[in-house]
Specification:
This protein is an alpha+beta fold. The chain has helices spanning 2-10, 15-26, 136-142, 246-262, 286-290, 343-346, 367-370, 376-380, 391-397, 433-441; strands spanning 34-35, 87-88, 112-114, 117-120, 130-133, 150-156, 162-169, 180-188, 195-198, 206-208, 211-217, 225-233, 236-244, 280-284, 308-316, 321-329, 332-340, 383-385, 399-401, 410-419, 422-429. It contains 10 helices and 21 strands.
Length: 445
């Protein structure tokens, strides 16, 4: 903390230059436009989704912690005393030229709580969720008058009730290299947790047009700082996240929060009654999985005896249609996934004579450094036509680990086999290449 404060206190520029920097940063170069979102935004973690909720505890901050907030923040960086929370503030001018003409005419500042650490958490969605991109009319109703170019996606439970909305700012050609797109999340009453800010003591809460707002910033990482703000408006929970430099980031965060609150809460009624796609999320026994008419025939009968069946999931959603099985013993496991082939699978087909695209012996760990960029998708996730699969290829996919502390030594491998329109994906730990080859040759297809 001390080095960061020393850095801030060492900054000194004349008044004219400071005004130019602030005005140049604040002038908007883009206006709110509705954009249709591609379906790939939601694909992450769909298969691994669990019905677990994590309600962010920060929504319950008491309103009595709200300090008296002036319209312009002081440029003096306060020093913590007697264990008080560190906060960082910078000047935000109230010049009318920096505001939206004819609309909002004042800027309520944010007090930024310095985060001691930042914990990323996987978003754990309810089982069987689905998603839909927002139309132009929906985007305008959910984010009225917001001066950002956004694409947004609504996520729903299987019965069509809304879980959350995630909106992402589109790339800006004029953005500096440290600039990271803004993300806004909102949900009815709560948002599924994905980022936990840890601080000392109780966070200081800001007052923005009468609404309590808790805002954070992280330590500097080169030229960038992570910013986050959270508040509730008409029982709708909001979270705003962005990366930027120390001055521009606070100005952007403050402006977005002010706009969201000033122009009113989202009209979530426009997201009601979505078209529910075909969905399936069924936990099966091994016997039920083997009787699945689409994928049961692709389950091997000769699983190593020491491995115990753990689970089988029959999943159909907007991104996947498959059967996913797991066997374990201690820290070792076998994941045998069977699904309809996607365009992504067909793009990674590898022939047996293209060893540079699949032979793990050619590339030492870490692979992100040793594997050429244009080959990484092939090397890490190759798809072999079943007619070309051999024991030699399976051996080429295997690598032995004996120096991983806290884990068992043994063989590891990961690859995919294409049977017409079906892909079998294998990920193993603790099984020899010869046994994996026997599982494939034992399939009666």
């Amino acid at each position: 903390m001390k080095s960061y404060t020393d850095y801030m206190n060492s900054i000194s520029v004349d008044a004219e230059l400071h005004e130019k920097i602030i005005k140049a940063t604040l002038k908007p170069s883009y206006r709110n436009r509705a954009v249709f979102r591609c379906a790939g935004l939601a694909a992450c973690a769909a298969i691994l989704a669990l019905c677990v909720w994590m309600a962010p505890g920060l929504w319950n901050n008491p309103a009595e912690n709200i300090p008296n907030n002036p319209v312009v923040i002081s440029s003096n960086t306060p020093q913590p005393q007697n264990g008080e929370q560190n906060v960082i503030t910078t000047d935000i001018p109230s010049d009318a030229d920096t505001l939206i003409p004819g609309l909002r005419d004042e800027e309520w500042p944010l007090t930024l709580n310095m985060a001691e650490s930042l914990i990323q958490a996987s978003r754990l969605w309810p089982e069987g969720f689905f998603y839909q991109p927002l139309s132009e009319e929906q985007l305008s109703a959910v984010f009225p008058n917001l001066d950002l170019t956004l694409d947004a996606t609504a996520f729903y439970r299987p019965d069509g009730t809304l879980i959350t909305v995630t909106a992402t700012e589109l790339s800006r050609a004029d953005a500096p290299i440290y600039y990271n797109r803004t993300e806004i999340q909102l949900g009815a009453g709560e948002i599924i947790e994905d980022c936990v800010m840890l601080i000392e003591g109780t966070p200081i809460i800001s007052d923005v047009f009468g609404v309590p707002v808790t805002a954070y910033m992280s330590e500097r990482n080169n030229d960038t700082v992570y910013f986050q703000a959270e508040f509730i408006l008409d029982n709708i929970a909001y979270r705003v996240k962005l990366h930027d430099n120390i001055i521009a980031g606070e100005i952007r965060l403050t402006g977005i929060v002010n706009d969201l609150i000033f122009y009113g809460a989202a009209d979530l009624s426009v997201l009601a009654n979505p078209v529910i796609p075909e969905l399936r999320y069924d936990r099966l026994t091994l016997a039920e999985a083997k009787n699945d008419p689409d994928f049961g025939a692709y389950i091997p009968a000769n699983i190593p005896a020491r491995f115990v069946f753990e689970s089988a999931l029959r999943l159909i959603n907007q991104d996947a249609n498959g059967l996913y099985l797991l066997w374990t013993v201690g820290l070792d496991d076998l994941r045998w996934n069977i699904s309809k082939a996607t365009d992504y699978d067909l793009e990674r087909i590898v022939s047996a004579n293209e060893r540079e695209k699949y032979d793990m012996s050619l590339y030492p760990i870490p692979w992100m450094q040793s594997v050429p960029g244009e080959l990484q998708e092939y090397v890490l996730h190759p798809v072999f036509p079943v007619e070309e699969l051999t024991l030699d290829i399976v051996k080429a996919r295997a690598y032995y680990v004996d120096n991983d502390r806290g884990d068992t030594p043994g063989w590891r491998m990961d690859f995919n086999v294409l049977y017409g329109e079906v892909v079998v994906s294998v990920n193993t730990k603790g099984i020899s290449p010869e046994r994996v080859w026997e599982m494939f040759t034992g399939l009666n297809i």
